[in-house]
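Q: Got a minute? One more chain.
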Amino acid sequence: MSVKEKKHTRKAIEYAVIFLLVNIAAIFFISIREKDHINESLGNHSESISEQFNLVMEDYKRSFRVFSMMMTKELENTPDEIWDHLKSMDGDLAEIEGETYDGLYMYYRDRYLYSWDTPYSQYEKTGYNAKERPWYKDAVAGGGEIVFTPPYMSYANHYILTTISQLQPDGETVFAYDIKMGDIQTLVTNLDYYDDTQVMIFDNSGTIIGSTDSDYLGGNLYMSEEEVEDALSELEQQLESADENEVDEADKIRESIDSTKAFYEFRKQFGDGTARLEKDSGKSVLLSIGSRQYYGCALGSGGYNFMILVPRLGMLKETMDIWLIPLLIIEILLIYVLGSLGRARRNRELKEAYVELGQTQRRLEIALSVAQKAAAIDDLTGMMNDKSFRKGMGEALDAMEPDESAIFIMIDGDHFKQVNDNYGHSVGDEVIKLCAQMIIGRIRTVDLASRLHGDEFALFIANTGDFAVAEHIMQDINKSLEKEAARRNMPSITLSAGAVRARKGDNYSALTKAADEALYKAKETHNGGFSYNE
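A: Always. Here it is, folded:
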């Protein structure tokens, strides 16, 4: 090998070492920044779940306060007739609370009174002692505060039950009623932070009361794998010994077995994940669940815990701006600097490298742009999805002047289920797309429109605080929808809407809750109603 060739080889080795060292350092610092971003993102999402959860729990408490006021007034007026009154209230509360309500009862004058048609004497015969029940003990321990007894799964109906109770000022009387915590499950299933995200809410005893996978409801994250397996074996033995004439009881056991099997498989794969997440509360932890890796975060607050599990690949997609662009810039600068050192000797090769680099950079930028755009658009309608709408609405609120107003509208289709049932889901999808076209066609470029999920949409009407304007827009959308559906020979639906006024600094979750309350009123007619919440 000639001297020139040796020198050329030595230079090539030096450049390769420099290139490798700089890339290692860049990846190290970028990974630190990415981890900080993931920590902040998952921490914020956990806090957001906690805030929304607390709103649901406060709704439960608010309903219970109304019940307590009614019972207190009745005790003051007709204390000797409270048993009959308690039974009569059962139907009224069921109508008020709907699916949430599951029976009320109380302890008064050393007697346990229940709203169902079971006389007190029957409880006396069985030796039932209300003072030994968890709800009574929890109420006494609460010292007059409204308390929740640890929830449990009712496999007969597949919902989570808890008891709200409160000790009254006399120190003996306790008001209580059972509720189905379905609003918690609704909250969890509507969360859509990342692709394939798993969210779980569980109490301090480990019982799961909300999960994106409903089969995990009622499972206990603090039970060991062996304990879950033993529970499964016990259920299978119960099924074998069950009376074949008791069909409902057998079905209940089978449902419990199916859920326990699903949770058992998860528990085997999850291992010590719960302990690791709780050890680093509020921070992201990389976990292996089965053959996949997840970023997890757990946060405890007020007797409940909130867990998020995000696939690593999905998180990398979300953090693309954090690592891809900086790494791309470093690569460009590094190649430029190293190329400049040998420009005199490799001018031709360097030009070719620049051309190739420019093409690679352009392809990467195009791929990044396509990925970001796809992540922000609803696949069926082409509208903004929930995530991009939330972000766009937040930016619009921040950009508003203190004296400016806007209108936020939540929209829900009337009788859409009948379209799916009668015509099939493909026709249902066409109806949803038609609704989206009519909505987009009736707003301005400064306004925002989104499909949240199913037949639910949202609008942000900028530069106005007039509900009459919002109502006119919805009337126009419904008229256009009816006319265009007839022209296309499609089944038509109406869109009911609930509106709320938005101002700078407003919280998206609070606006959503207020608009949803107005929408609930509008939906009473099921014919394109409109209501607003001041």
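A: The longest strand covers residues 292-301.
Q: Perfect, thanks.
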